[in-house]
Structure formats: structure tokens, C-alpha cells
Amino acid sequence: MFFRLVMVSFSIRSHECLHDVERGALKTSFSSPCTAVLLHRVQEERERALHPFTDLSQSSGCSKIFDYSPGGLQFRLLALQQYCISVTKLESEEMPFSNEKHSLNDESLNSDTDSCERSDSVNSSSDYEYARQSFSSDSSSKPSSPASSPPKMVSFDVLMETAKGLSNMTLAHEIVMNSNFQMKQIDLPPQSLQRKVKEIVHKAFWDCLEAQLNQDPPEYHHALVLLGEIKEIILSFLIPGQNRLRNQISEVLDLDLIKQQAEHNAIDIHKLAAYIITLMGKFCAPVRDDDVKKLKSVTEIVPLFREIFHVLDLMTMDMVNFTIQNIRPHIQQCSVDYERSKFQDFLNKQPNALDYTTQWLTESVTEISASVTSSDTSPSDTDGNASLLLSPSSVLNNGYLKLLQWDYDNRPLPETLMTDRSRLQELQQRLNLQRLVAYIMLIIYNMVGATISGLPEFADKLKRVIVVLLEGMHDKNFNLEETLKTISVKICSEINQSLTERGYSVLTDENQTNLTGQICSIAEQSNPVRTLINNRIEQYIANLLSIPNLQKAVSVVPGGLAPIQAELEEIGSQYVCIIKYNVQVYGPFYSGILRKLLFNNLASAGTTASHSP
Questions:
Q1: What is the DSSP letter of 267?
Q2: Is the pTM here over 0.70, yes or no?
Q3: Which of 6, 32, 26 is nearest to 76 (CA)?
């Protein structure tokens, strides 16, 4: 159930701008500060968004919960902003982790430097210490620690409200973690069913409008409806203090007066359209000036209405992104508490919402216990090592390392990591690419290292060749064996060409055969080069996870990874940023699970030791 709801919340973000028949309103101004963004709920009669999740839309109330319009997104942004402002006004003694400054990272996979700095400031020791204290103390003595409610039946409305809460949590998390997050108009594929349906419905609507206006006398009913929607959208761009302009717009676009004029065939549509275009030119962002100017060259009524609504959609999306940009600092200050509280609300309604997380941590405990048991030490030493290795931090770090090898397509991710699924999967793919580059470069250096020594530019060229040939390696139809053969032939060719240019003899047939064979052999899971590189990468990431503050200490890249050092440091930094923030938000939940797992493990280990001869 959790995964379905979370996927709903992810899809809500991706479908916000899909349904442009919905005319959302954003009550803000490009010149207003964030605190002046006082938004109003879009009127219910304009909530006509289509629902891609028809299997969940079993009641009419579902349309009010899943609001896909830009206005609905804006309303959720306002709710987040109001929550953030209210939290910052609380007294410090009422705030959990009040000695901590939640300056969250604007994490994105393309801009990791600033993100990691913010993540380090967020990842202060208070939440981590809180998790450790929660682990070591009795849960009953901490009424504020997260706890699940007993199983109970929930209604469909409660379920939908929970999904809405997850949507808000996911939206806040995305705003915090991705500094480049913004809403965009979705360009549907040309041959897709959605695009065809959209084009047919829109064409039918505009054809109907044109037919009504061409009647004798003209029928203005639908035109008046469109004028009313345009008026509401334009008024939504105003902040509450602009009463004079609001009154002026309401006076010119007086629908009752326009309706009377239409009844007497005295309405001037072109004059009203010109006034609307003038207002749009005042309210739009500079990037939309050309679009607004083009409207003045449209003379036909129906195409003019269509283009006006198109530009208004773009302006509305600009307002959405402007609102996101301005509320980000407020969300960063208290997003840890906000996400934790939202997840706790979900856990109260779905007590089994941590099943996959528990399974994930149980596997981590089992792996560490097995590694200790398999060591060649005495039973007493083994018990001591088990108590040392089976610490909350070691179990968590081992679990996080497992995510680098996770099967995201066939295995469910822990519930506490679902909001970072796309980021973790992308980092895993980037890391797997660098693994293969490291395998091949290590073989090249071992085989012909003396030949290319002192030529860093040539080594970089070989690496670029390998990366290009490995493009698409994550596709299901990718043939690694054939690609490695192609890479080996290209590498031999590049090396021979370099040797010839420098006046040296080319590689012998035997050397080329050996180089090709070793490169092709890395497709085998048991390949020693592959095992060596994987262990060193895992060691490097584990060292990064164990460093409290990345700004004060830097983990040394192990030997053999020099060719991918820059890429590995970037991936490791971004990965640790995600993990540190995850520990902050869900640390109390992890501590409750680990308390049961580790105490049970230690108790069983003590029982085994007492019965041993």
C-alpha cells in the first residue's frame, strides 16, 4: 500500500502540468517577497483535471484530493510555506532538535558542491545523537519518539487523505533535495493516446466555439465562459494589496455587463481581447514578452482565445516555479521535522508501513553477523566482535551500501527511501559505468602501463572512448560481451596509433590477444579485477558514510581508482548527501527497529555462548 501511495505522490508531480484544460490560479507577483505570496484556493467548479489513476478514483471525492492543476500545486506549496513559517515561530524549547540549524541541501545530480555543504550543515550531531539515545533508551520513556498505531480499518477517504499527505511530503522533499526542481509543460509523444485524445477534445471545443460565433446572430455563451476564466486567472496574479487594479479589471471585465451587450449584439470581442493582452503584458515574466506580442497579430477570435489560454498557461507555470523558488528557504529550515511528522501520520494509519524497511535492516544485521561468525576467532572473541560490529551505525551503513547493488526494477525499496528512489537509481547507474571504466583502465595499466606512462592526456582519451562505447549499458538489450570485444579492439588500435606517432613499435599479436582476453573476461562476476575494484569502491563509500562532516575530512581514494577519482568523488559526495539527510529524517524510526533486532541478536548470541562447552 505504501508503494502505491508513494508512486501516486511521485506521479502527481510529473502530471501537474499535463491537463491544460484546468486553469489554475497563482496569487503572487514577481515583485513580491515570499511572505507576500498569499494564495487562494481555486474555485471548485474549475477543478476539471483528468485523473491518470482511475483505479483509485472510486468516489467523487477523489477529484478534490488529487488536484493536478497548477492551482492545486500552488495550494500545497502554500500549505508547506505556512507550516514552515509556523514552525520557525515556535519557542526553541518546544522544538525538537532546537539546537540544530536546518539549512537543507539543494541537492541535484548536476550541482553537488553546494548541496553537500548544505547537507553537512543539516547533518549536525543533534538528530544523530537523538537516534542513538532513542536506541539505547526505553521507548516508553520517550513519548515523542515515533511509534506505530495498533492495526485498524481505515476508510477510503482517510486513505486518500493519507495519499495527499504523502504527495505533500514528496513535493517538499523534492524541493529541498533538488535545487533545479521546477514544473514544466509536458510535451506528449506525437503518437501517444493521451496526445490524440487531447487534440481531439481541444479541436472539438474550439470548433464548437467557432460555430457558435458564426451563427446569425452570434451565440456568445461559451465565449463568455472563457472570458470569465480569463478574468479569474488574471485576478489570481494580483496580490491582496492591489485593490485598485483589481477593481479596474473587475469593472472592465464585468461579466454581467458583457452578457447584456452580447444579448443586444453590441459586444466588442476584439476590444476586450486587446485589454486582456495589455494586462498579460504587465503581469508576465520578461521571458514571455515575445509570446504576448505575438497575440496582437492574431485577428481571428477563436485562434486568439486559444493563444491567450496557451500563454496564460505558461504564465501560470512561471508563477508556480517562482513560488517554489521563494518558499525553498522556508522549507529548508524545517523540512526534517515536516517529513518526519508526515511519515508518522502515515504510519499511524498504516502500521505495516515499515515492513520493507525492517526486512532491509534485518538483512543487514544478518550479513554483519555472518561475517563475524565466519572469521577464524575463538567464541569469546567472536562475541566481542559481534557486539562491536553490530552497532546501529554499522548496520545502517551496511544497509546503505546495499543500495548501490539494489535491483530497483524487481525488488521493493525500503519505505523510508522511496522519495529518493530516482536519485539513488541514477547514482547507481553512474557508479556502475565508472566501475567498468575502472576495470578496463586497470587492465590497460597492468598490461601496457610503461607504454602510456607519462601521457595523462592519452589516458583521458582512452577513458572517453570507453565511456562512449559503454553508452546504453543499462538497457535490457545491451550486450556486454560484444561491447567489451569492441572496446578491446578500439583500445588496441588507439595504443598502436599512439606508439607509432611516438616512434615506438606497436603491440605484438600476443600482447593484443592477452589484452583483449583480459578485457573480455571482466564480464564474469568472479573476475579478480572486478572483485578488487568493487571492494575498493565499497571501502571508499563506507569511509565517506563514517565521516561525520565531509567539509572537515576527505576520504582518500584507494589505489587503482585514480582514473575515475573525480567521478567517484562526485558520486560519493552526492550519495552521502542523500544518506545523511535520510538518517536525519528517519533516524528515530530506524532506532526503534534496530533496538529490537540488535537486542534480540545479542540475546540469542549470549544464549548460544552460555550453552557452549
A1: -
A2: no
A3: 26
